[in-house]
């Protein structure tokens, strides 16, 4: 049923993405595609994979933005310019418009943990849910003709055949800089809730009224190079023997 | 937004079909005339053809029946349910007219009501999407309803004139609907061009506090499903010209031709003028519908600096 759960879900599983830490390596993009092309539902197809016009279905993409400070025309001209790498996948919104527009009941938001999923056997591939999503989190798979989206690796996080350390979404497990974190936002003491509270985690496009579960942590203020402390003079007064002699000789030169 | 031909044809054809069906349901036309009988069949063909065309953009059309299930939340589902429900009075009335030369007023009025509700549902599919700011307005269903009513009145007047009846009521109705239809469309497009964007690259990334945000590197070199579906750009170059063409073809010329037909009375010029008026109106609406999709900007393009 494509009506949203009537009450707030007891668990709100989602991701925190730390924009201060992400280096834009696209490892999460690759690992997401690798896991999800063989897991839940239809494979993530590519079109013209070895040709010039290659494109394909991805559930997670990394954009890179340049942020030009006020008054600047080009990056780094004035103030502290930033290059921010920006991973983006489904935000598992509480008021998910992609779910309510679905005419077939293929899209749904799970009442127990809030994960937004597509039942691909019911999807007619009309594409309306992708239109309804302001974040571009849904992509039509052109080979299977069904809508694909981030499942929060629902086939990993509850999978007891995996080691406990692996029971997180593939993107989180693979991130080499720990820019992605998985947890329950309904629990105020969870790792993700604490991170959001401490770092000022925020919603993307709050004006769209979708109430995303996933949160983004802003880049930390940058320290200017000039204000970095200089290294203290090293104290070598306790050097003895050969190294003491070398130290004295080099000081004289 | 990508202007898919199947959807443009669907909304235009079914709009005209429902408009004609709604006018036929009012019972203003002589049910014994051959032209009226043909008009009933034509309306059903336009509606059916439009609905079939709308299934062309589905990637798994064999499951299309499932789209009738979620009427509680989805306007697309409501449209499907209403379209099928409306077929019942439309088909009964068409059969009564074609085979018995009789108009069933109550069934006809039910058909008129159903046609209006179905067109409203079609428009609400688009108007309910907050992610496409230009569509997310009450003017969207108003435009769809007025265009359907104007097209239906024009077609009805043509049917009357073809049966050698001079229907002043229908011609006046056509004028009465044409003017507000294009006035509403004018305001709709003014909003599209002048409204402050609801979402910006700054709100999309949350980085507005640091400065102005623009795309440095897109996720992939080539276009993807999102940029193809939501990042259509061809229209903007000629959009103003196309809009003027749409207004002239869909509004000014038909209105003038209706006046000609009014003046012509029972002369042979009346059906010719009305036939041309309908043809021009259909071309104007097709152009308008193309712009409706092509000019609308989707919020996700804030991530692609388009």
Describe the fold and architecture.
- The complex is a heterodimer of chains A (253) and B (306).
- Chain A is built from seven helices and eleven strands.
- With 253 residues, chain A is of the alpha+beta class.
- Chain A has a single domain (13-225), classed as Alpha-Beta Plaits, CATH 3.30.70.
- The radius of gyration of chain A is 24 Å and the shape is elongated.
- The mean pLDDT of chain A is 91.
- Chain B has 306 residues and is mostly helical.
- Chain B has a single domain (5-303), classed as Formate dehydrogenase/DMSO reductase fold, CATH 1.20.1630.10.
- Chain B has ten helices and one strand.
- The radius of gyration of chain B is 21 Å and the shape is globular.
- Chains A and B meet through β3, β4, β5, α2 and α3 of A and α3, α7, β1 and α8 of B.
- β4 (60-68) of chain A pairs antiparallel with β1 of chain B, so a sheet runs across the interface.
Short description:
The complex is a heterodimer of chains A (253) and B (306). Chain A is of the alpha+beta class and 253 residues long. Chain A has seven helices and eleven strands.
